Amino acid sequence: MLKLATTIDDVIKQLDEIIAAAIEEESRLGFFPVLYRTVTIKVKEGIAAGRFENGERMERLDVIFANRYLEAYEQFRSAAPPTSSWLEAFEAAKSWRPLILQHLLLGINAHINLDLGIAAVQTSSGEQLPTLKHDFDEINKILEELLDTVQQKIGSLSRLLGLLDKVGGRTDETIFAFSMEMARDGAWRFAEKFAALTPEQRPAAIAERDEKIVKLARRIVNPGWLLRLAALVIRLFESGNVPKIIRTLSI
Predict the structure, then answer these.
(1) Is residue 63 part of a domain?
(2) What is the C-alpha to C-alpha distance for residues 11 and 50, in angstroms, rounded to an integer?
């Protein structure tokens, strides 16, 4: 049974356990938590360096935010239903076809588009929410700072990924940047709406938001016939060695 994290160190420890299990089982469920672990460590370092306006509050946000992923993962592993957007991401890990990039985008989609706004409100509710905006944006700056390294890691594993540039007009780096920028802005708008709701209204708002986000997840997996064809060609030449991918994505 999952024991929720109470500190950033708890979060990192639980992510380590998920990653170790994924390596042992050769499961693609390990792709996203490797990226997430790196971000979490950077947030921890940022708190220690005084990068955030309120370090104590930032750790609380980080833990609340992470627990939504950890709980969804545990639900999926125990055959209990997580949110639909997380279910879409986890189910994709069973399939051979999605690219490494698609797996990461599915995790980003569920965690930022759905979970981040909820976690922000649970950290700073009501009229306190605007005071969180600076540190909320700072998390996303940390993500952006990691883009070049993530791009290089994926490129070393997926050597034909440049086909996306030819077909879709965007490289993996710009896809990441665009996705995270859109997710960040959407998450904050949702947080503002969510903060204004009563506790009784919030479950329905989460369900409605989840329904919208799962549609985005399905577009990530099925981006149209031309991009699907390009993705298939890329996938044929992409590394299929799951433990190697997980270790390579570790930054």
Answers:
(1) yes
(2) 20
* Residues 105, 108, 111, 116, CA torsion sign: negative
pLDDT (average), residues 106-130: 93
Q: What beta strand segments (E) does the chain contain?
A: none
* Contact by Cβ (8 Å): 129, 121: yes
- Assigned domain for 2 exists: no
Rounded Cα distance, 166 and 161, in Å: 10
Report the helix count and the strand count for the chain, using DSSP H and E.
13, 0
CB–CB of 183/113 below 8 Å? yes
CA distances from 234 to 61, 112, 141, 160, 224 (A): 37, 26, 29, 5, 15
Q: Is residue 107 part of a domain?
A: yes
Distance CA 9, CA 83 (A): 25
Q: What is the pTM of this model?
A: 0.92
Distance of CA 49 to the CA centre of its chain: 24
Domain count, the chain: 1
Helices 100-108 and 202-221, axial angle in degrees (round to 10): 170
Q: For residues 141 and 181, give the distance between their C-alpha atoms in angstroms, rounded to a whole number.
A: 10
pLDDT value at 172 more than 50: no
The CA distance from 13 to 72, in Å, is 17
Range of the domain at 141: 8-249
Within-domain flag for 1: no
Burial class (CB in 10 A: 0-12, 13-18, 19+), 235: middle
Distance CA 157, CA 101 (A): 10
